[in-house]
Amino acid sequence: MKSNSRRKFLRSLSTGVSASILLPGLTIADSAGFFEDTLHKLNKIADPRSEAYWETIKSQFEFTDGLKYFNNASLGGSSIPIRNATRAYRDTLDAFPSKYMWGGWKDEKEETREAVARLFSVSSEEIALIHNTTEGMNLIARSFDLEPGDEVVLADHEHSSGRIPWEVWQETKGIHLVRPTLPILPKDVNDLVKVYEDAITPRTKVISMCHIVNTNGMMLPVKEVSEMAHERGILVAVDGAQSAGMYKIDLNDLGCDFYAASSHKWLFSPKGVGVFYARQESQKHLRPLIVARGHRDDSIRRLENYNTRNLPEVLGLGAAVNFINEIGIDKIHDRTFDLKAYFREKINTHPKLILKTPASDQLSGAIQVVEVQGRGVAEAKNILIEDYNIDCRPMSGFDLNALRISLAIYITKSDIDYLINALSEITDS
Ligand SMILES: Cc1ncc(COP(=O)(O)O)c(C=O)c1O
């Protein structure tokens, strides 16, 4: 498609005119580009440290009227360009189903894989396009033929997605799960590395860990744990549901063997799409979860053979990565830690709002949890949604009694001011 017609296509999406005639030939690189006027605006503002810049990004997201959505860690919203691109892919598929499901989008799918690989600084031969983190964590656990007494280390904050598949092996095969306790507020990274080091025995085969825990937003030292584990011949599987897209991640540098993520959170993709990374030399350990045509493929593609599948959403992931690239992952990275600093600084001025997420940028990012003293967390959450139209997630486990606040790129500093004002009114009332 000539760039002229691509522009026309994007414009037709923005005005709601059916795009099906223009669609064939749409490439992933084009599909979620900002609308031209938005790009123009961003270029004019130029300074990514200005609120005007991020207000413009925010204008690309569309939440229910008045809703302040601080709940991205539960589920992200896709921006308008991503939604439009995905809708257009769905329309195209339904206009000629057999063509697009069975090969018509082969190149576009590979483009998506490549875009994801580039975002995480790895090879496209190390990326499979799956459905979600739960699938990826199952894929890892189901691949291992462990013996009774073999050990897997899973800290106490692991999400059920990464825990249950191993628990099933414990019940049926007698493997042993070692469940160390993580400190809620570690002093530094070494505190956490030590927890893993102490949990290892000669029978340890796998360490499975979150990159960022969903409970209090703590970031775990995957790089340090991977180095330590590899010296002992232990494999490291990572649940990246809460980190993928939140900030800049180089999976090669992180050094883990496997990393599974749901792109419908911090990558803003359509729902039901996920990213799975397996280091080239560790791929030999993996077996497809679903055995279908293509399961003997030598490449990582053997892990994603589902026959008929949600291709518009998979290509929508390509659109989502393109959206992130239009902003730039470096800018998103800086903004994430800037928002976090702003939020923490404000909370810290209020004696009845207690942060329960470690402060350092090595130990947390855009997920912060805060206790509203004097209020049960369920009650606080209800008041926020009913009286202030603020959505966030209550976290009661681990004695947190805290609200989980997600600071995604569509959150501005004035949204944070609004939230903090609401929180302080709740404590005072
Ligand atoms: C840390 C973590 N892992 C896994 C999941 C499960 O994600 P999905 O339902 O997309 O598989 C979540 C969801 O919130 C999560 O926070």
What's the SSE blueprint?
Layout: H1 3-14, H2 28-31, H3 36-45, H4 51-58, E1 68-69, H5 80-95, H6 97-104, H7 106-119, E2 127-130, H8 133-143, E3 151-154, H9 160-173, E4 176-178, H10 189-199, E5 204-210, H11 222-231, E6 235-239, H12 251-254, E7 258-262, E8 274-278, H13 311-327, H14 329-348, E9 353-355, E10 367-372, H15 377-388, E11 390-391, E12 393-395, E13 402-406, H16 413-428
Parallel strand pairs: 1-11, 3-4, 3-5, 5-6, 6-7
Antiparallel strand pairs: 2-8, 7-8, 9-10, 10-13, 12-13
Helix pairs in contact: 3-4, 5-6, 5-13, 7-13, 8-9, 14-16, 15-16
Measure the end-to-end span. 60 Å
Number of strands: 13
Task: Tell me, rounded to a whole number, the average pLDDT.
Answer: 92
Order of helical and strand elements: HHHHEHHHEHEHEHEHEHEEHHEEHEEEH
Lateral strand order in the biggest sheet = 2-8-7-6-5-3-4
CATH-defined superfamily of the largest domain: Type I PLP-dependent aspartate aminotransferase-like (Major domain)
What does this structure look like?
The strands form 3 sheets. This protein has a 7-stranded mixed sheet, with helices on both faces. A 4-stranded antiparallel sheet has the order 9-10-13-12, covered by helices on one side. Strands 1-11 form a two-stranded parallel ribbon. Helix 15 (377-388) crosses helix 16. Mean pLDDT is 92; it is low at 1-25. The chain folds into 3 domains: 3-67 and 76-101, no CATH class; 111-323, 3-Layer(aba) Sandwich (Aspartate Aminotransferase, domain 2), CATH 3.40.640; 330-428, Aspartate Aminotransferase, domain 1. Helices cover 44% and strands 13% of the residues. By secondary structure, the chain is α/β, with parallel strands linked by helices. Pyridoxal-5'-phosphate binds at residues 132-134, 159, 161, 210, 214, 239, 241-242, 262.
